[in-house]
Design a protein that fits this description.
Largest sheet: 2 strands, parallel
Radius of gyration: 20 Å
Structural class: mainly alpha
Number of strands: 2
Number of helices: 19
Strand content: under 5%
Length: 380
C-alpha cells in the first residue's frame, strides 16, 4: 500500500512538472514567435471596436479589419473592472453581457494591483496556471481508480486549451472551477462543491448548466446536503446579476443569435464542410468538428458501460449535447468558436472512467493532440 501511494504521488509530480514545462514553452513560443514580444497579441485585438482607454495604440498589436475576439473584451474589463472610466463601456461590444463574466478580469486586476502594464501578463499567467491546476485536480480525481496515472496529461491534447491560451478568454479559468466541483462532488466535499460551481458561474454563466447537472445528480443520488450547498453557491452569481440590472448598461445578452432550431446548425455545418472544397482550412474545420461530435458520443458510450461512477458526467454531457444540438452557425461556423465554447466536453471525457476494452479516450485525445499541434504551428 505504501509503495502504491508513493508511486501515485510520484506520477502526480511528474504530470505537473511535465505540464508546466510544456506550458511555459508554448507561452514563450506565442509571445516571442507568434506575437513578436507583444503581450497584447494574446488578446486578439481588432481595429473595428474602440480601443480600451488604458491601451496605447502604438504599443498594441492590432489586427486590422477584424472586430477582435472575446479576449479583447476581458482585457478592457480587467483594466477597469469598476467601470470608472466611461470610455471602458464604449470599448465593449455588449457591456451588460460582458460584465456578467466578471471574475477573471476582476482577479486579474487585483493580482496586478491595478497596474495596467502588468494586467495583460497576469491574465496570460492565470490561463497558464489554470492548465496546471486542472492537471493537478485531475490527478486527485483519479487517485483511487485503476487507470493510467498519466491520463491527466491528456489535457495537453485538447485544442481548446491552446486556443483559449492564445486568445486570452476566461474559459480555462472557468474550467478550473468545473473540474474542481466535480472532484469535490465525487469525494463528498459539499461546501467546496457549491463554492466552486458558484465561482464558475461568475466566470462564465454557461456553467449554470453544470450547476443543474450537479443539482440533478444530487437529487438522483439523494445527496440532499449537497443540494443545500449548491443553492448557497448561487447566492453570489444571483447577487451580481441583480447588481448589474441596476447599472443600466447598454447591450443585450446574446442568446438568440447563438442558438436556433435543433440540429439546423449541425446540418448547416456539414453542408458548409461538404461544399467548402478540398483545402487545408476546410479539412481542419471538418477534423475539429468531427472530433468534438465523437467526444460527445464517446461519453455516452462510456456511461452506458459504467453508469454508477459517470452519472454526473453523463448528465452534464447531456446538457452540453443539447446546447450543441441547438447551436447555430454563429457558434458552429468557426473552429475557434465551437472548440472554445464546448471545450468542457473534453474535460468531461477526460474525467469519464472508461472500463471498456476499446480505449475511446486514448484514441480521441490522440486525434485531438494532432489538431492541437496543427493549431500551434499554423494558426496566426
Amino acid at each position: 500500500m505504501f509503495n502504491s501511494q508513493r508511486d501515485i504521488s510520484f506520477s502526480n509530480y511528474i504530470n505537473i512538472f511535465f505540464a508546466s514545462i510544456f506550458i511555459v514553452f508554448v507561452v514563450l513560443y506565442f509571445y516571442f514567435v507568434k506575437f513578436d514580444s507583444n503581450i497584447t497579441g494574446f488578446f486578439r485585438i481588432g481595429s473595428i471596436l474602440p480601443l480600451s482607454p488604458f491601451l496605447n495604440p502604438e504599443n498594441t498589436l492590432i489586427y486590422e479589419g477584424e472586430i477582435g475576439y472575446d479576449g479583447q473584451q476581458f482585457l478592457s474589463l480587467a483594466f477597469d473592472p469598476f467601470l470608472q472610466n466611461p470610455e471602458t463601456i464604449n470599448s465593449l461590444d455588449h457591456p451588460i453581457y460582458r460584465y456578467r463574466r466578471i471574475l477573471y478580469p476582476l482577479i486579474s486586476y487585483f493580482l496586478a494591483f491595478g497596474n495596467s502594464t502588468l494586467i495583460p501578463y497576469v491574465m496570460v499567467a492565470i490561463n497558464a496556471v489554470s492548465i496546471v491546476i486542472i492537471v493537478a485536480i485531475t490527478n486527485l480525481y483519479f487517485k483511487f481508480d485503476n487507470v493510467s496515472k498519466f491520463q491527466p496529461l491528456f489535457i495537453l491534447c485538447i485544442p481548446g486549451v491552446w486556443m483559449v491560451l492564445s486568445l486570452g478568454t476566461a474559459d480555462l479559468f472557468s474550467s478550473v472551477f468545473l473540474v474542481a466541483s466535480f472532484y469535490c462532488y465525487r469525494y463528498d466535499k459539499y461546501r467546496l462543491t457549491g463554492l466552486f460551481i458558484g465561482l464558475g458561474c461568475l466566470t462564465r454563466e454557461t456553467l449554470l448548466i453544470v450547476w443543474f447537472a450537479l443539482f440533478l445528480s444530487s437529487l438522483i443520488e439523494k445527496r440532499f446536503k449537497q443540494i443545500k450547498y449548491l443553492l448557497y453557491g448561487l447566492i453570489l452569481p444571483i447577487a451580481w446579476t441583480i447588481y448589474i440590472t441596476f447599472l443600466d448598461l447598454p447591450g443585450k445578452v446574446r442568446v438568440k443569435d447563438n442558438f436556433g432550431f435543433p440540429f439546423v446548425g449541425i446540418f448547416n455545418k456539414f453542408i458548409s464542410i461538404l461544399t467548402g472544397g478540398i483545402n487545408g482550412r476546410n479539412l481542419f474545420e471538418a477534423y475539429m468538428f468531427i472530433i468534438l461530435l465523437l467526444s460527445i458520443m464517446a461519453i455516452l458510450v462510456i456511461y452506458l458501460k459504467n453508469r454508477q461512477t459517470n452519472l454526473l458526467i453523463q448528465i452534464s454531457n447531456s446538457f452540453y449535447g443539447l446546447m450543441f444540438a441547438f447551436s447555430s452557425m454563429t457558434i458552429l461556423g468557426y473552429y475557434l468558436d465551437y472548440s472554445r465554447v464546448f471545450m468542457d466536453v473534453y474535460f468531461l471525457l477526460l474525467l469519464s472512467i472508461n472500463i471498456t476494452k476499446i480505449p475511446y479516450k486514448t484514441m480521441l485525445f490522440s486525434a485531438s493532440g494532432i489538431g492541437s499541434l496543427a493549431f500551434l504551428i499554423l494558426h496566426s
